[in-house]
Amino acid sequence: MLVADTCLCEYTDHGHCGPLLGDGRVDNDATIELYARTAISQAEAGADIVAPSGMMDGQVKAIRAGLDAAGLQDAAIMAYAAKTASAFYGPFRDAAGSTPAFGDRRG
Question: What is the DSSP secondary-structure string of 75-94?
Answer without folding.
Answer: -EE--HHHHHTSTTHHHHHH
